[in-house]
Amino acid sequence: MSATLAATTTSTVHTVRSADGTTIAYHTTGTGPGLLLIPGALSDATDFTTLINALATTFTVHAIQRRARRGSGPIGPGYSIETECADISAVRAATGASYAFGHSYGGLVALETARRDPAITKLAVYEPGVNVQGLIAGDWIPQYRQYLAQGRQFDAFATFSIATGPSKAKRNPRWLMAAILRMVFRGEKRTKLFELLDAVAYEHAEVDRLNDSYPNYREVSADVLLMAGGKSDLPQVPPALARLSEVLPSSRLQTFPKLDHFGPHHKGEADIAAAITAFLRG
């Protein structure tokens, strides 16, 4: 059990085998209808402790440790978005959950899973990593992988942050961004970051591959709550939400004016939990 989760909730850890035999762990907390929580890139279940606590008063929350996270198996040589969908469906089948929430890349995984698994009847996503007109760049990935191969983790992280972050991040030279990140990420926070850096390249290669595939979400039968932060400042978010609103058979949009992209696990947990709860109970 995660020490972070255990400090504030009664949580149990379970595992399932995905279609390719990979172990997928998930933390179960609370009582009520089952809700799958799907973290994004560079995050795991423990980053959502406050949100989980808020949701667990109404739902049984199954916070999934996606591939490369502690307790789960590696990315694997055949990694793809389809692999992620199989992982989520394995947890859904084991838990009987029919609701899901995904953040960022986890939101993309949630949407792709809902296309394939109609047993997900309601889905909430916060700024899902849906790529429209190539606004989520992928040309940084070769350099990023080269830095990782050289053991230059902070140069890799800086490259990722500049390429995919808000406008203020894009203005920084790589050396300055690396220095800032080195100061911010220390101790256990740095250890966990380094564990997840390799997965970022694989995940964002899928984001790049799926560019402009949003018409596929016409196949989603679930009712969808689209969420965004008013202070996100990510150029890809508005067009992605606009296209999703057009193609999803049943969706609504809710904006949180005071939140940025990291609202679900930084300052916005109470508001987001309230919105998810009202949507799922409605």
Briefly summarize what is shown.
With 282 residues, the chain is of the alpha/beta class.
Q: What do we call the CATH homologous superfamily of the largest domain?
A: Alpha/Beta hydrolase fold, catalytic domain
How many DSSP E strands? 8
Poorly predicted regions are: 1-7
Which strand-content bin applies to the residues?
15-25%
What is the structural class?
alpha/beta
Please tally the helical runs, counting DSSP H or I stretches of 4 or more residues: 11
Gyration radius (Cα, Å) is 18 Å
Ends distance = 32 Å
Side by side, the strands of the main sheet go 1-2-4-3-5-6-7-8
General shape: globular
What does this structure look like?
It contains eleven helices and eight strands. By secondary structure, the chain is α/β, with parallel strands linked by helices. The chain folds into two domains: 3-133 and 214-281, Rossmann fold; 141-208, no CATH class. The protein has an eight-stranded mixed β-sheet with strand order 1-2-4-3-5-6-7-8, with helices on both faces. Helix 4 (105-116) links the parallel strand 5 (99-103) and strand 6. 44% of the residues are buried. Residues 1-7 have low confidence and may be disordered.
Features:
2 domains; 11 helices; alpha/beta; eight-stranded mixed sheet; 43% helix; Rossmann fold; 282 residues
